[in-house]
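Subject: Sanity check before I submit

Could someone independently write out the structure tokens for this chain? I want to compare against mine line by line before I put it in a report. The sequence has 130 residues.
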Amino acid sequence: MLNTTFNTIGATDLEASRVNRDVWGFYQEVRIPVTSPTWNFPGAYSLEFDLAEREEWYSQNTAATSVVGSGHSQFDTQRPKFSVRWQPIDQQLTLRASYSEGFHAPQLFEISPASVQSFPAVTDPHNPKP
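---
Independent answer below. Compare away.
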């Protein structure tokens, strides 16, 4: 069998699958200053906290004409970030710390039953013995 998409012999044409994904995202951040250089507070020339969050909504369709039924799914994720910035003496010494989480959405081929590729056996007609 000659695959018209990749022009190779022995590969299955994956044109029968339809997969798509819609992603919506939202990011918000708040910086909270606790002290500033104008306050002349000992041991805290400047101190501020930073709070942030990223939220994403995924909607995906992994339906295929060769597989019965459709594979529509939806999910969302929320990932926080916290950080602190402290200048105990003046601007020449700054200490920072942060914590954040990451998220990697799976690729469509990893979750779609339609994207499974098979390689059928091809027999050479001039040499039928394997």
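---
OP: Matches mine. For the report I'm noting this point. The helical segments are 108-111.
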